Amino acid sequence: xxxxKTPDFLNLESFLSEEERQVRDTVARFVDERVLxxxxxxxxxxxxxxxxxxxMAELGLFGPTFSDYGCAxxxxxxxxxxxxxxxxxxxxxxxFASVQSGLCMYPIHTYGSEEQKDRWxxxxxxxxAIGCFGLTEPDGGSDPGSMKTFAQKRGGDWVINGAxxxxxxxxxxxxxxxxxxxxxxxxxxxxxxGTPGYLTRDIAHKFxxxxxxxxxxxxxxCRLPDSSRLPHADGLEAxxxxxxxxxxxxxxxxxxxxxxxxxxxxxxxxxxxxxxTSLINKQHMQIRLADMVRRIxxxxxxxxxxxxxxxxxxVHPSQVSLAKWNNVRMALDIAREARDIxxxxxxxxxCCPIRHMLNLESVVTYEGTETIHQLIVGREITGVxxx
Length: 387
Ligand code: TGC
Ligand code: FAD
Hints:
By secondary structure, this protein is of the alpha+beta class. It has eleven helices and nine strands. The chain has helices at 18-35, 39-44, 53-58, 76-89, 91-111, 114-125, 237-271, 283-311, 317-341, 352-363, 370-382; strands at residues 131-134, 150-154, 157-168, 175-180, 187-192, 198-202, 214-225, 273-274, 277-278.
């Protein structure tokens, strides 16, 4: 039963293995001790806490589901629990981990040559190399099939022209997995920092994900050898399969962000006394807190079942879409509700709900907007694409 702090109303703890619990508790400790004391300052001053990355690597948080190249070989539920705890800290930290693992290590592992895997994966697992993923373009991200970035075959080389926008970790990254159209359809390329014709620039003035680096990437006659192409990635399905990995993580991460907001609201209601009694005694407050637990519990069930399906290799992308849509909407609504419960104090970055709320405005948009996920589920149940 719930202790009033951790929302585990259905005792999902009892469905976790010993290893899954240990992984979760280790990351939870890291978040409590290292992330929470600094994250409000990072958010306020628009700073990604790069100093935390080596410890995250030591804990095995990058590419944790791979069992080769120095990775931890954990199952998908353990991965989800890692992501949940990181996002309880901040969506920016979770973004960093999602991009490194799901959007960079995954495509290199799945679509890369042996040489590319040997070169990058051990470095990325230890965070000695940072990655980013360039799919979205300035003219619109929801329809990546119509991307304008183009890679032209010239002799044995490729020459890339185009731009990518809103790219997490862009200026931090040692390597970008960039997706470009070619005469033979969409292909993926690994472009290293410092390659002539490849430039990056940070996007400033964000009021969301302020503790995360978001960038533009420019390719101006950027010439690459054929060995930079991901040889096994053929068509739009390849980048979309990477999105499935990251969206799966977000379904868990949203539970973490919502949990932090719920805990802040509960704590506030216990301490604030109005009209002669603590807010915790007010029927209306109890209903609001109970409703948060109802919504968090549904999201936990979705994430756990998705993880068990994924561990069996039996998950469909539309199921991941349903969970990303539901869980991020749940977290955003709870963050807004918690912000309101905290009254005026709720607008201060010293209280976590407004930071999570602002972050979640990005999370509901990236990795497929809410509308895109609704339409993916709509297509699955009707058989008709209505994009
Ligand atoms: P569509 O015909 O649906 O698909 C083309 C081919 O791909 C297959 N497929 C998938 N495979 C694996 N996973 C998925 N999720 C897949 N979705 C589709 C599909 O079966 C098909 O294969 P085949 O063999 O039949 O050719 O393509 P479409 O052009 O109709 O697109 C559909 C749509 C709208 C769902 C897709 O374009 C989409 O998902 N759009 C949203 C784009 C998006 O989410 N971008 C995210 C960019 S990365 C990001 O935001 C990182 S944030 C990181 C952070 O900081 O955490
Ligand atoms: P658009 O695609 O222009 O959509 C605009 C609006 O139209 C949305 O409300 C959308 O839901 C709606 N819409 C779209 N299609 C339809 C339709 N068929 N019917 C009805 N409505 C529709 N991208 C990367 O590639 N890599 C990254 O690392 C990355 N990191 C990001 C980090 C941040 C902080 C943010 C905010 C974004 C990031 N993105 C990244 C980009 C993200 O994936 C895109 O923002 C997202 O896919 C939506 O694209 P868009 O912003 O161009 O909106």
